[in-house]
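Archive transcription. Copying these from loose printouts into the bound notebook so they stop getting lost. Printout 1 of 2:
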Amino acid sequence: MSWELTNITARLVLPPGLLIFIALIGLTLARSRMRFGAGLTVFSLVSLYALSMPIVGRSLLQSLEAPHSDPARDVSPGAIVILGGGTYPRAPEYEEDTVSGETLERLRYGVQLQRRTGKPILVTGGNPAGHETSEARSMTSALRDFGVNARWIEEASHNTFENARLSSEILGKAGVHSVYLVTHAWHMPRAQMAFERAGLHVVPAPTAYTTSSGVRVLDLMPSGRALERSYTFFHEVAGRIWYRLRFDFGRENTKRT
């Protein structure tokens, strides 16, 4: 329930939900305060158009991504942790729940890293939406399609914060305190923060960078995919701020006790 409430809140207070709400307020106020109401409406529509432009959505996500560096070049952690990125529920062609496209991108890179390093894999992802299969279980099934098995499965988490805490507990029992962390490049800053605060040494192994082949006229035209990228940016920024406040507040409470 808290997972659903958190996501509902995020969709209401972040663009595009916030901008739609502002536009509705503007239209309502236009009857009594024409100039102010019209200004709010125009502002929200222009902002919505801007965030729907591929060049804007792409640039926003790229601002979260660190330059690529080969994670296997210099160090050798004890395990590879692959974060879940969503589920494809009740897939008719597979006759079961399976992984989403984003999760598959992470798994593919995790498999490549495993073949290069030989390190065991932990997959992490619970079932907050109440599907038939947890995200981690679907990930293990997809890994077998690559000819790879996961050594550890963490399937009780509902978010990145819990991914980190529960994965750290599992790996700590196995004597593993340093990991390659596989997730999307735009998600890596928040994920790395969470895993390091959970007590693990993290070697970032980001994948699925936001790339392009140059600017085209279409990059200035509205796109649903671009709006999704803009939403992802604001969601990540808000999540990073919330995690930092949560960690710092928790540290202060620990000091007082």
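Printout 2 of 2:
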Amino acid sequence: MVRVMRPSASEFPERPRILVLKLDHIGDFVLAMRAFLELRTAWPNALITLICGPWNCRLAQRAEIFDRVIDYSFFPESASDNQRPTAALYSKFAKFDVGGPYDIAIDMRYDDDTRPLLAMVDAKFRAGYAAKNINLSLDLELPTAEKPATGEERYSRPLHAELQMLVLVSTLINYFRQREPHPICEMLPKAGAIPGLSDQRSIVVAPGAGKTTSQWPLKNFAALCAALTERTAHNLLLVGNQGDIEKGRIISASLPPDRVCDLTDKLPIEELPELLSNVALFVGNDSGATHMAAKLGAPTICIFSGAADYRIWQPIGPNVKTIRTEIECAPCDFMRREHCPIGVKCLSSIAVDDVLNTALGMLSASKAIE
């Protein structure tokens, strides 16, 4: 199955509704206060609701960080009386009015006993630490670092609880800051004219990638470029480094000379951002050029192989679509095509029409916005 994906951070509202779960004890709450403040500082206009144990309500109200504080007894007040929560406790919380819906729900406890509560909250995005004993998938999930590592990693040091909570909140904040301009945008002048082409915005295609297992077949790129020249009025620019010269030559040879400009190994890397900052569309593999285009805000299509984990390495930007194939062997971490026993099926199974239709849709949407 081929999937077209887009990171969800671009859809985040300006004034989010945020739910914070911190149901444990006084010491835990005190250690979390810096993280609470980070949330409020990041989103000063957010509507932030805290659900905490009754023993922490007055402290939470006095902090003046939250818009609403709700008390809920999930644990005994004394930590020494703690036991694993029962099914009845979870069932009771499921019926409790938490005041949703929320844009974000975050569980600030690193023990996994409260993690199932996130699934009972009406929220678009859920964040917390990875649960060790519970099959629950969160949108943002960090590993805990409470216990020292063993074996070969026995020299690793545990991370203090206060820092763990700050890391969780900081990661959450920066996830949603993906929609903000990347620092590279502040470094660049506006794009200049490209010799030999009209002033209209062009479609930029980058057929190369650092790993051969990340390169969509060259014949597919050639077919895509031919279809784009037939179906649109945009000219094509081919970009790449010295290793992509032959790819550029093969693709450009099959296109009308007045519709394509082959810039492979002709445009210094430091000038590439200027070009990408004002294009109609960018199409590429999982490569540096693709990440650059995404960060610069260009309408970007990334053809993503199974060699890497898309959840970690897919490009991020305000207008990005990642096209990938669901395949059991991904991610494989193979660097070269000859290492793959099934001929990099994760890429070869992505049809030209899958990419073409996505491209035409993005070009149409961009024109409508303009």
